[in-house]
Amino acid sequence: MLTAKGKYALKALIYLSTLEPGEKAQGLAISKAGNIPKKFLDAILAELRDAGVVYPKKGPGGGYMLARAASDIKIGHVVRAIDGPLAPIGCASRSAYEPCGDCKSVKACAVRFTMMKVRDAISDVLDRMTIADMVSISEGGNVTPMVTGRSAASGRKRR
After folding, report:
1. Which of 52, 54, 93, 125 is the most exposed place for a label (fewest CB within 10 A)?
2. The CA-based dihedral angle spanning residues 44, 50, 51, 56, taken in that order and rounded to the nearest 10 degrees
3. How far is Cα 1 from Cα 10, in angstroms, rounded to an integer?
């Protein structure tokens, strides 16, 4: 499940993606625009900075901006940086595997296999979508091409 922290991170990035290239936004403006508690946002922005997603500029005229184009920032990267692995349980995780204490056989566990499918489905969507895609959706854009990997104009598979 996406935490409030993850949701706020995405909202902050969506806001920053609407700025003109080179323009910066101060934390208070981001906080107000996204209805995000300012202290919580400061911690989130620090994590996004550490993940290479935002660039902070200190001093007069300072603020935050995206470290790269919104079309180059994958949602999966952001969610993992803020909330950790996408898998719903530890034994289904690729990056933070933890065996269950109550499982008799990892190789035959139906719960694990089901949760691995859930992890793969979540990863498939979030690792294809970008912040730019989220902005497009909020502006009435078509979500189908972003989720399936098909071009909206041609219906052909994007590479």
Report:
1. 52
2. 70
3. 14
The topology under which CATH files domain 4-66 is Arc Repressor Mutant, subunit A (1.10.10)
Q: What are the domain boundaries of the chain?
A: 4-66, 86-148
Predicted model pTM: 0.82
Beta-carbon contacts of 151 under 8 Å, excluding residues fewer than 6 positions away, are: 145, 157, 158
Q: What is the pLDDT of residues 27-81, one digit of tens each?
A: 999 999 999 999 999 999 999 999 999 999 988 888 999 999 999 999 999 999 9
Q: In angstroms, what is the C-alpha Rg of the chain?
A: 18
User: CA distances (Å), 94 to each of 33, 38, 152, in order?
Assistant: 35, 33, 31
